[in-house]
Amino acid sequence: MITNHFQIIFMVSILRPITALPMAPGNTVNLLGTSPEKDDGKILQRAKRGWMWNQFFLLEEYTGNDNQYVGKLHSNMDRGEGNVKYILTGDGVGSLFLIDENSGDIHATKRLDREERAIYTLHAKVVDKRTNKTLEADTEFNIKIHDINDNEPKFSKDIYFASVPEMSDVGTSVIQVTATDADDQTYGNSAKLVYSILQGQPYFSVDSDNGTIRTALPNMDRETKENYQVVIQAKDMAGQMGGLSGTTTVSITLSDENDSPPRFANHTFRLSTLESAEVGAAIGRIKANDADVGRNAEMQYSIVDRDGQDIFTIITDQNTQEGIIRVKKQLDYERKKTFSFKVEVTNTYLDPRFMYSPNPPFKDDAMVRVTIEDVDEPPVFSRNPYIIEVHEDTAAGSFVGVVSAKDLDADNNPVKYSIDRHTDLERLFNIDSVNGTITTLKALDREMSKWHNISVVATEISNPRQTTRVPVFIRVLDVNDNAPEFAMYYETFVCENVKSGQLIQTISAVDTDEPLVGHKFVFSMSFSNPNFTIIDNEDNTARIITRRGGFSQREMNTYLLPVVISDNDYPIQSSTSTLTVNVCACDSRGNVQSCNTEALLSAGLSTGALVAILLCVIILLMIVVLFAALRRQQRKKEPLIISKEDVRDNVVSYNDEGGGEEDTQAFDIGTLRNPEVMDAKKLRRDIIPEMLFPFGRTSPIKDNADVRDFIHGRLHENDSDPTAPPYDSLATYAYEGSGSLAESLSSLESGATEGDQEYDYLSNWGPAFKKLADMYIGKDTERET
Asked: Which of 400-404, 467-471, 586-590, 770-774 has the lowest mean pLDDT?
């Protein structure tokens, strides 16, 4: 290490003199020392450099007032005559480094920091001042900044975060923290760091060489203390006195392990619920505590008593880790009022390391007592549903079956029965409201309906809101009350050239009854027939066979064959069906060519003629219908109400056409809203007035109380009359009222009161009373005068 108090002068070593030899023409010698070399028999002189050096050392962070001395360049070409000039080039020359061109002394003008730049590369050469000729060629050398301990260790983070599982063994690695020192690590101890723990004992320790933090105590419990703050120091100079140091904080969290079992804070829970609670309904919650967190705190509950397992079930609320007790089976207060059972809680995820620890068992239990509260319940039927069988054709009022319901509450209220008539629209059944006996109101027919589904309602007499419905399925059993008949309509024909014993038709039968052993029909004829015979196939079918040949359409074109069909049920039912056999003309292979109907047509009119006649008839009918419609429109309209006693809701249609946009007086809708404002003096423009000067009489008394009372009284009498028809009716009454203010116009009784009357109102009665008004009003005026 070179200090500022020493100067280093690199002198050029003088080599041993060699005997001078003559030089070849054109060769120069620019080095001070020479050594002989042979070239084609001639001895040459090789110049050797006279200075041997390549590196200076400079101490960083110089604190002096003057420029810092670096070193001195000197060449043996410099004999002190002042003819030699030293030239310096390279990094920082002129700004950081200066050279005395006469003496070769190098100085640093600024304080240098090794951490910014550790080495500078420079070039030096020597020239002749007068001729500027190079005396020493350009040579490279380095200025290396020498390090001092001026940088403290630094950690990459101010705060580190780490975690370690709780209950870890001693020496478990937590985290490694490292610091860096900007000083030179290759020189001295300036960058040699030593780690130590300032805060965090005795829980943790740190490796002094690499900064690894480890646990120092066994069985550290997160539930006791979860977070720790550890302060780590890094010191250079190998930790010796005077070294620089840096610190950092490590926040260490103990991660949870499943080392704590769940525990009930209360080992007895009391719950209550109504007996009407539905299956699946929650009746209460219980809670166990677990000091662990997260996944390790998840719990599952179970009912361990058989008594409770059948009636209740328990699940875990994943959000709150509470046990939710639900109803598993319908409760019944009358059967059992209280339940007691044990509930056990365990962790969902168990850690085998702690299951066999000296702690108590890794589970806990509690007793749950549930009290059932009574509820007024509806009646309960003894069966649900009821299936009853009854034979068809049973007389009305016959017994069908009995339903029974009972109030299971402690009060055991009596029950009444009824049939929901929405399920018995035809009113086929009735039920006794006291004992629940179902009887028929009408005879039942299985062929109309095989099943009848009705609903019976049981209602508590003391509390009609408590009702129960039960379906009753009534099956109508079959009775052999229907005779068999042909399965279809048969179009049977026989050829004129048929032979005796030939099959012309196969028939079958159907029966709407359903015997238990199946149908068995017997076919026969009601009397012996010389033309045809019937043979029973004994499989519910029969064959019609001809007994002769030589049928002729001219003799008889249709034969009616009565066939008797009987069943084998009890009582035996039989019917006679008639089979119509038409005689037809056939070819030799038995194919029908024409029957009696076609023969008649061919003998008379052709098919085209018949179609033409049919079209004419249709056209004639259409003309008649059209004529009748026109005549109906020309008839006088019938009165809207034919009879005063037959007044119902009627829709009246008027076919009157208005007078257009100028028709402003034909109809005033305001009259309907307020009849009192009707202007009776306006004339309609769309009709011819019946009188030239129509007038309207305004009643001087707007509120005819006597007429109103009379109408209301008659309306009340008709509303309360039980014999009144169930539809709107019109009643007509003749009532004159209590009289007019004008009283009688006769002069027989007006002699005494003529002077007391005022006749101004006569002017309001219209033009017909104008003359009379002028007479009486004029008399009054003269009398006053």
From this structure: 770-774
In angstroms, the Cα distances linking 508 to 528, 560, 561, 610, 733 are 20, 17, 15, 37, 73
Using the structure block, give the residue that is written with the tokens 């209740």: 312
| Confidence band, pLDDT 50/70/90 cuts, at residue 713 | confident
Return the beta strands (E) in 311-385 as ranges.
312-316, 322-327, 338-347, 363-373, 380-381
**Residue 596 contacts by C-beta under 8 Å, 6 or more apart in sequence?**
553, 557, 558, 582, 583, 584
Of 63, 25, 74, 21, the C-alpha closest to 45 is 21
- At residue 638, the pLDDT reads 53
Check: CB of residue 10 under 8 Å from CB of residue 52.
Answer: yes
- Tokens standing for residue 693: 């000067």
- Which of 420, 357, 344, 47 has the alpha carbon at shortest distance from 219? 357
Strands 363-373 and 268-274 turn out to be: parallel
Separation CA 581–CA 279 (nearest Å): 72
Nearest to 176 by CA among 186, 190, 162: 162
Q: What is the pLDDT of residue 16?
A: 28
Percent of the chain with pLDDT strictly greater than 90: 28
Token pair 């009454």: residue: 733
Q: Could you tell me the two tokens for 81?
A: 């005559």
Q: Compute φ and ψ for 240, nearest 5 degrees.
A: -75, 165
pLDDT class of 506 with cuts at 50, 70, 90: very high
Query: What does the block give as tokens for 90?
Result: 């390279």
Amino acid at 245: S
Residue 269's beta-bridge partner residues? 368
* Residue bearing the bigger pLDDT, 43 or 236: 236
**pLDDT band, very low/low/confident/very high, at 549 (cuts 50, 70, 90):** confident
DSSP state of 171: T
Tokens 């027919």 belong to 445
Distance CA 520, CA 538 (A): 8
Q: Nearest 5°: phi and psi at 607?
A: -65, -40
The sign of the dihedral angle between the CA atoms of 665, 671, 673, 676 is positive
Q: What's the angle, vertex CA 90, arms to CA 84 and CA 93, rounded to 5?
A: 75
- Closest by CA to 361, choosing from 349, 351, 348, 346, is 346
Determine the pLDDT at residue 692. 46
Torsion angle defined by CA atoms of residues 485, 490, 495 and 496, in that order, rounded to the nearest 10 degrees: 60
CB-based burial of residue 738 (10 Å sphere; 0-12 exposed, 13-18 middle, 19+ buried)?
exposed
Count the neighbouring beta carbons within 10 Å of the beta carbon of residue 763. Answer: 14
Please tell me the distance from the alpha carbon of residue 214 to that of residue 723, in angstroms, as a whole number: 109
DSSP string over 206-244:
E-TTT-EEEE-SS---TTT--EEEEEEEEESGGG-TT--
Contact indicator for 620, 588 with CB cutoff of 8 Å: no
CA distance 424 to 447: 18
Sheet holding 386-391, edge to edge: 386-391, 467-477, 451-460, 415-419
Average pLDDT over residues 315-321: 92
Q: Dig out the tokens for 708 from the structure.
A: 């109103």
The tokens 């500027």 sit on which residue? 132
- CA terminus-to-terminus distance, the chain: 159
Q: What pTM was estimated for this model as a whole? A: 0.41
- Measured over the CA atoms of residue 279, residue 281, residue 283 and residue 287, the dihedral's sign is positive
